[in-house]
Design brief:
Blueprint lengths: L1 E7 L3 E8 L4 E8 L4 H16 L6 E7 L11 E2 L2 H12 L5 E5 L4 E6 L5 E7 L7 H11 L6 H5 L13 H13 L4 H23 L5 E4 L6 H11 L3 E2 L7 H13 L1
Parallel strand pairs: 1-4, 4-5, 6-9, 9-10
Antiparallel strand pairs: 1-2, 2-3, 6-7, 7-8
Helix pairs in contact: 2-8, 3-5, 6-7
């Protein structure tokens, strides 16, 4: 039996293909772009090709993410909160708290020992502290997004960025540049601001170890280190943290089928 999970996010759309034993056969990550339906089809088709499968080989598909209802070939839809919890628990069975920082929202989820969602808090009203936030800051600093993590580790005297609001924080960054502050120090300050925000969200749900981080921002070593230092806990991070939601959707598809 073959199943699939498709996670349609604001910036990326991810697909995971599983066999009946829960083994990941293939996955695909594409930019969502302007059309969620088109991105879902592209990601799904790529994942099937990588697995050497045809669409007729797949028994059940579950979609998740903000664009989950824009996937016409899905058999059912499940919220991303549930899917990230399930995926994180599968990858790291001792997970009790999940931090997911995606393109345009961030979530902190408490998980029961059975893998169900106990409580969660979500920031989806603005791009504060998300992947989009970091993209805007990288552009203001004239560096590549992928460079931010390593740059921040070179900081000697991190500056204080008082806001995680994208608009206000960008103004602060421009001011720091004008003051002649080092790029590494500014980036470290931005990462610290994100860590502070996540720490506040963790307090609201009641953090319990182990803590797993998912989402594209988990690839930024600077953000990861800043959060770890702030909360005093080592984070579990899968080798490809962007697919955790799609993996959770595929696991639920496996159960339903």
């Amino acid at each position: 039996m073959i199943v699939a999970g498709v996670d349609v996010g604001a910036l990326s759309t991810d697909t995971v293909i599983l066999n009946g034993d829960g083994e990941i056969l293939a996955y695909s990550i594409v930019n969502t772009g302007a059309t969620a339906t088109r991105a879902a089809r592209r990601s799904y088709t790529q994942a099937l090709a990588l697995a050497g499968l045809a669409e007729s080989d797949v028994s059940y598909v579950i979609s998740t993410g903000y664009g989950r209802r824009a996937v016409p070939f899905a058999d059912a839809q499940v919220t991303e909160i549930t899917c990230h919890a399930r995926g994180a628990r599968f990858l790291f069975p001792e997970t009790h708290t999940v931090i997911d920082i995606g393109g345009q929202d961030s979530k902190v989820i408490r998980v029961t020992p059975s893998g169900k969602v106990l409580d969660f808090v979500m920031n989806d009203k603005c791009a504060a502290g998300t992947g989009r936030f970091l993209e805007v800051m990288a552009k203001a600093l004239e560096i590549k997004l992928e460079e931010m993590g390593e740059r921040s580790l070179q900081a000697g005297h991190p500056v204080t960025i008082s806001s995680t609001c994208t608009v206000f924080a960008e103004s602060e960054v421009v001011s720091r540049i004008a003051e002649g502050q080092a790029t590494a120090d500014i980036v470290a300050g931005l990462h610290a601001a994100i860590a502070n925000r996540i720490s506040t969200m963790l307090k609201r749900v009641g953090m319990q170890e182990q803590v797993t981080m998912s989402g594209g921002v988990a690839k930024n070593i600077g953000v990861v280190r800043a959060i770890e230092e702030k909360i005093g806990v080592r984070l579990n991070i899968y080798q490809e943290p962007q697919i955790v939601g799609a993996l959770g959707a595929a696991l639920i598809a496996l159960e339903k089928k």
